[in-house]
Amino acid sequence: MTKSLNEAAMEIISPILDDPQRYGALISKSAGRATIVDMGIEADGSWLGAKMYVEAAHGGMAELTYGRMRVKDLDLPSADLMVDNPMLSVIGCEAGAWALGEGEFVPVASGPVRAKARADRWSQKVEYEDPSPYVLLQMQTARFPSDETLAFVADACGIPVANLTVMVAPSASLVGSVQVCSRAFEQCIISLARNTSFDISTILHGYGSAPVAPVIKDEVLAMGRINDALVYGGSGGMWLRHPDDEEIRRVTEGLPFSAQAGDDYGKGYAEIFATYGHSLFNIPAPLDSPAKVMMANMLTGSVFIHSREDRP
Amino acid sequence: MTKSLNEAAMEIISPILDDPQRYGALISKSAGRATIVDMGIEADGSWLGAKMYVEAAHGGMAELTYGRMRVKDLDLPSADLMVDNPMLSVIGCEAGAWALGEGEFVPVASGPVRAKARADRWSQKVEYEDPSPYVLLQMQTARFPSDETLAFVADACGIPVANLTVMVAPSASLVGSVQVCSRAFEQCIISLARNTSFDISTILHGYGSAPVAPVIKDEVLAMGRINDALVYGGSGGMWLRHPDDEEIRRVTEGLPFSAQAGDDYGKGYAEIFATYGHSLFNIPAPLDSPAKVMMANMLTGSVFIHSREDRP
Amino acid sequence: MTKSLNEAAMEIISPILDDPQRYGALISKSAGRATIVDMGIEADGSWLGAKMYVEAAHGGMAELTYGRMRVKDLDLPSADLMVDNPMLSVIGCEAGAWALGEGEFVPVASGPVRAKARADRWSQKVEYEDPSPYVLLQMQTARFPSDETLAFVADACGIPVANLTVMVAPSASLVGSVQVCSRAFEQCIISLARNTSFDISTILHGYGSAPVAPVIKDEVLAMGRINDALVYGGSGGMWLRHPDDEEIRRVTEGLPFSAQAGDDYGKGYAEIFATYGHSLFNIPAPLDSPAKVMMANMLTGSVFIHSREDRP
User: Fold this and answer.
1) What is the pLDDT of residue A311?
2) Mutate to test the interface with C, among B27, B52, B66 (most CBs of C within 10 A)
3) Residues of chain A with C-beta less than 8 angstroms from the C-beta of B3
4) Nearest to A171 by CA among A272, A51, A41
5) Number of neighbouring beta carbons within 10 Å of residue B105
6) Which chain C residue lies closest to A80 (C-alpha atoms)?
7) Are C234 and C209 in contact (CB under 8 A)?
8) Which residue in C202, C177, C182 sits closest to C192, CA to CA?
9) Which among A102, A221, B147, C297 is least buried, having the fewest CB atoms inside 10 angstroms?
10) Is the Cβ–Cβ distance between B56 and B111 less than 8 Å?
């Protein structure tokens, strides 16, 4: 591509870098001169900034629209995302899939940095090399990254730390809530990749929606609530070219949270999270997918859908 | 902020100034060389121009999306607004709160001009100084402003009249309908400010939706109809950091039109308007708020909602 | 207008020309050096590219938003379009109304090229002259246009073939599906123009919505399916200034597909298409309009709506 994923991402967030106050951001420099863009730890964040965060996460290959979704009595804003080229923009870039170390509370990197470093198993599945010397790292975290973490990331990218821009927002913030709730489609494709032998490269176009869950200060409860929004209120769809309708039918039926949650269905996600040692990496893939999934095969015209209408 | 509210607003409307015909606008100069941008008095207006009008009204700190809302048999476009930093963008800028004189049919100024002049009691509540020498005044009116009015406004801003850009659209126009119907959130926060002792500076993020009411030529009936859209079809939400859930509960219950209208509930707004001497300033605040209100406390995670489901 | 329809369209699609891979496009040159932008024949297309396709089709005088629409069990993306100045942007520009030759499978030109060539009966109804030496031709087709066709078009525009940019996407593609499903309002105004003596120049503002139908590889079935989305799921609205409410009432009742389809109601569109010799030009206008139509008279405030709620 003429404009690389990191170049496009940096262009998308440039209004925030130019005028942080306008977007509810706070900008600082790390010891190694990385640019830290706080969107929700001490900063208030903003709707417009959250949209930039999400579109930059996909290297510019997605569009976020704020719609409206009725959830019981609430008319909540929804994060409606259209996703182009998901192998590149999600598997190779946006997904929260690069664990920066080991252990229970390890920081996780997402966004264009993954397309540059290609240090996790998902980004390595995609043929892509990003020539940009400037790199965007995004982290869903309540703590600023350590200098060691930043050095580790810059090293994996082959760039100086000073060329790294880091956007951080905890689950318990507006930007955190928007960015997680925009992951309904990512959940589908990652769940397929982790949990089945389905050839995800047949997926050409995707979309997802979920209500933007109201924030709660406690980070664990906030994480639970935004995941509740996804697994009980989210909807993901994909258009694919696949030779075998039967296989699509099979994976569609197994994909939604509702189909796999068993006795966990109806539980708050914070409780589910606790069951699996508070680590997203331990949660079985079938429990990390939206309420409703649609798969449309462009070769045959068949459309498969699976959901559980009796939501709690 | 690097870019002031008036600077951002002028940038947003610059496509209209460059190519008025494309946006259904008519541009002229006042005697004092102010730039008059007619969006609906003699001009037809446009959807794209109306979006610019609304986003400029907030100094660029809001995004308008046209969605769809079903109202009985009608599938109407809706004005879905996301609002950042409401103390600054609404209380200090967008709200229609600066009466330019006295009496029943006094012209009212809204938009970035208020952040520059700081001549009304709401904008004075916000710490903000706009260095821009160019200022945008917006008026919901069927009559072009007089030279006296323009001189008065320029004087209050400390700028020459020639530096003033004035956008006008009557209630009975497309742009007028869109901009009023985008005020569902403004209604909430202004109603709280006028009617309660609630600390509105705890409100960090807002959103609102209402159907865009079909226009009718008569200005009073048009004004009534677009307010009907708000008070019977509008929905406003806000995310706040407030220490006292009980106080939020109390104001939420008192806030929606439905809760306060009493015997006026079900009446057309034109009739209500007449009751109060045809002046928006006389209408009690509780009658000037949307059908449904949601308040989410980010500190405690509590969500409060109040509405009257049995809409007429 | 300062910026002509073709100039605006070329500006809108310039990101695709600069970085085709990012938008799922494939660019090539014809023998005569016209620029061919494939958005769906051999190319995959994209949501972001489809949005540019549609907005360019209207010379920049429309905005496409991707919303969500529930159709039975499916939560499909919807193409929600707001249309400014429909006489110019639709009748004079966007409509698929210029048959490039004769016969059953004749290629059809749409988009800004029509405003330049003014070679069909609809574009001739609009007073407009486009000075741009660069012209955008759009075609819903599964076959690349022949050199003869390109020469014919360039000649009709009075420009060299090398100044022609041609965007192509078949019905059986993402971009094809989005662009057809964005035509709910066009269907209304063209149906009025073809089928009644109604003065369409009284229509000042329009909007339309339809679900984006999942693609199927077969071109005829795909064409059928996307038209099903329009005639059974589409909704069009218009705001007009018309002296006679009675006439509006009459045409509104006759306009929607549901009102006119008779025994064809409930049939798939592919079947209807076959009945009329597989030519869109043979299909009676009343069968080419959305499920639901709303007309709002800005002079009188009357709102007329017609639909058939018992959709199959």
Assistant:
1) 40
2) B66
3) 18-19, 22
4) A41
5) 10
6) C67
7) yes
8) C202
9) A102
10) yes
Q: Which residues of C touch A300 (CB under 8 A)?
A: 216-217
Taking every pair of C-alpha atoms in chain A, what is the biggest distance, in angstroms?
A: 56
Closest residue in chain A to residue B236, using alpha carbons only: A75
Here the tokens at position A85 are: 């080229």
- By the 8 A CB rule, do B37 and B166 touch? yes
DSSP E strand boundaries for chain A:
26-29, 35-38, 62-71, 74-84, 98-99, 108-109, 135-139, 164-168, 203-211, 235-240, 292-297, 303-307
The lowest-confidence range among B104-118, B132-146, B221-235, B280-294 is B280-294
In angstroms, the CA B35 to CA A219 distance is 51
Decide if pLDDT at B220 tops 90: no
**C-alpha angle C40-C133-B16 in degrees, rounded to nearest 5:** 85
Chain C residue numbers touching A242 (CB-CB < 8 A): none
Binary contact (C51, A63; C-beta < 8 A): yes
Compute the distance between CA of residue A214 and CA of residue B301 in angstroms, rounded to an integer. 7
The whole-angstrom distance between C299's CA and the closest CA on chain B is 5
Q: Which residue has the tokens 């939604």?
A: A256
Q: Which chain B residues touch C202 with a CB distance below 8 Å? A: none
For residues B256 and B292, give the distance between their C-alpha atoms in angstroms, rounded to a whole number.
6
In the chain, the amino acid numbered C61 is M
Using a CB–CB cutoff of 8 Å, tell me whether C244 touches chain A: no
The pair of structure tokens assigned to C83 is 């249309």
C292 contacts B23? CB cut-off 8 A: no
Q: What's the rounded Cα separation, in Å, for the pair C259 and C273? A: 18
Give tens-digit pLDDT for A83-134: 999 999 999 999 999 999 887 778 999 999 999 999 999 999 999 999 999 9
Task: Kindly give the pairing relationship between strand B135-139 and strand C26-29.
Answer: unpaired
Which of C97-131 are b and which e, b meaning 16 or more Cβ less than 10 Å from the residue's Cβ? bbbbeeeeeebbbbbbbbbbbbbbebbeebebebe
Contacts of C16 in chain A (CB under 8 A): none
Q: Contact at 8 Å (CB) between B111 and B93?
A: yes
CB contact (8 A) between residue B301 and residue A221: yes
Q: What local confidence, expressed as pLDDT, does residue B51 receive? A: 98
Residues of chain C with C-beta less than 8 angstroms from the C-beta of A90: none
Task: Confirm or reject contact between C3 and chain B (CB < 8 A).
Answer: yes
Please give the average per-residue pLDDT across C87-110, as a whole number: 91
Least CA distance to B177: which residue of chain C?
A: C298
Contact A255, A189 (CB under 8 A): no
Reported in sequence order, the residue ranges of B55-185 that DSSP labels E, i.e. its strands, are 62-71, 74-84, 98-99, 108-109, 135-139, 164-168
Pick C217's closest partner by Cβ from A8, A80, A299.
Answer: A299
Q: In whole angstroms, give the CA distance from residue A222 to residue A115.
A: 28
Phi, psi at B37, each rounded to 5°: -110, 100
Nearest to C112, CA basis, from C49, C175, C187, C59:
C59
**Is the Cβ of C201 closer than 8 Å to some Cβ of chain B?**
no
* Secondary structure (DSSP) of C185-252: HHHHHHHHHHH----GGGEEEEEEEEE-PPP-SSHHHHHHHHHHHHHHH-EEEEEE--S-HHHHHHHH
Three-class DSSP category at A2 = coil
**Given a contact as 3+ CB pairs under 8 Å, which chains touch B?**
A, C
If one counts every other C-beta atom within 10 angstroms of the C-beta of residue C42, the result is: 9
Report the C-alpha dihedral over residues A47, A48, A53, A55, rounded to 10 degrees.
120
Q: Is the pTM of this model over 0.90?
A: yes
Cα separation, A118 vs A145, in Å, equals 20
Helix or strand or coil: residue A68?
A: strand
